[in-house]
Amino acid sequence: MRRAVVTGAPGSGKSTLLAEVARRGIATGEEVARAILQSPGGMELRAERPSDFALAMLEAQRASWDRAGEGDAPILFDRGFADIVGFLRLEGLAVPPAIDDACRRYRYEGPVFHAPPWREIYRLDDERIQSWEEAVDSDAAVLGAWRDYGYNPITLPLSDLVTRADYVVERL
């Protein structure tokens, strides 16, 4: 199986890209952080207990990984384990051993695509509460975490959706 990831800045078109890739028949994994934020108490957990939020993301990411199952078909995840490390670093928090271990144990075989900050499409919503500057800082923290765990993210073009999706599908 080729597990691949789209990571990067909040509001950089990751979810839209994954929806288009899924429409083309590629399996995708949900963004676990957004799912937690949308659940009752999720926003409060993130704001009041960010370390517990990170551990909740870890458990949800492991479950998503396990659901991917076996086989040869690629699956493209919306973020991955190293994104949790980036979140903790951005919050100025230590990385618990369980999260570090997951980053070392659960390895993505496919490419790690980096969706860079894209000012023209950035929008706030109910879960995306970071300012533009905070989104840029988040991107730097996440990108650094992926590199620290031995990945070489491939930066996606700032282009229309079809071109971006073509770029990803060709590399899977």
Instruction: Report helical residue fraction.
Output: 40-55%
> How would you sum up the global shape?
globular
Strand percent estimate? 5-15%
Give the number of DSSP strands: 5
Low-confidence stretches: none
- Mean pLDDT over the residues: 92
Count of separate DSSP helical elements: 8
Strands ordered across the widest β-sheet: 2-3-1-4-5
Name the structural class.
alpha/beta
Largest sheet: 5 strands, parallel
Order of helices and strands: EHEHHHEHHEHEH
Span between termini = 11 Å
Radius of gyration: 15 Å
Question: What keywords describe this structure?
Answer:
172 residues; 11% strand; alpha/beta; 8 helices; 5-stranded parallel beta sheet
Can you offer a commentary on this structure?
The chain has eight helices and five strands, in the order E-H-E-H-H-H-E-H-H-E-H-E-H. It starts with a strand and ends with a helix. Helix 7 links the parallel strand 4 and strand 5 (154-155). The protein has 172 residues and is an alpha/beta fold. Helix 2 (32-38) crosses helix 3 (42-48). It has helices spanning 14-23, 32-38, 42-48, 50-67, 81-91, 97-105, 132-148, 161-171; strands at 3-8, 27-29, 75-78, 112-115, 154-155. The chain is globular.
